[in-house]
Design brief:
It is built from 5 helices and 7 strands. It is an alpha+beta fold. A hairpin with a 6-residue loop joins strand 6 and strand 7.
Length: 172
Amino acid sequence: ERLQRLVEGLLMIARSEGSTPELVEVDVTALVRERADVWASLCEERGVRLLTSAEDGLRARAVPNALEQIVDNYVDNAFGVAAPGDTITIAAVTRHREIAVHVVDEGPGMRPDHLAHAFDRFWRAPDAPHGGSGIGLAVVRHLAQLSGGRAELRNRPDRAGLDASVVLPELR
């Protein structure tokens, strides 16, 4: 499955470079709840709590299926560093005419020099806890940019963990 995702991610990037994609309306509130439902049983099996928080009526424009792929990639990464008893939170909020979707974990976070390279194609942290191709976050960044937004990673200021987010223009 990881190899298939790698190939699909590379093909998506290659096909879309230099093109102007069609954007569609996305019900961000519903999408956050739907993605949480998809991940809930896997989290429960592993003893990881999955929380959601989304303001009602959040809407944005994005490349078709982009936000689903971004959230799933972020949750997959968070799940990969989660220990039993940890919490992963998927939250969507508005700020300054933008919609931000955050996936926040309680893992080890990332060193600042690693954060600087995390979205580079094929880059993997030397101490990464689980296998991967190094293409997932590059796809996330590409999809966010194609959608007129940006992808961000920050260490949590209050405790251990990472806050992975995508910010899209709010649809009014």
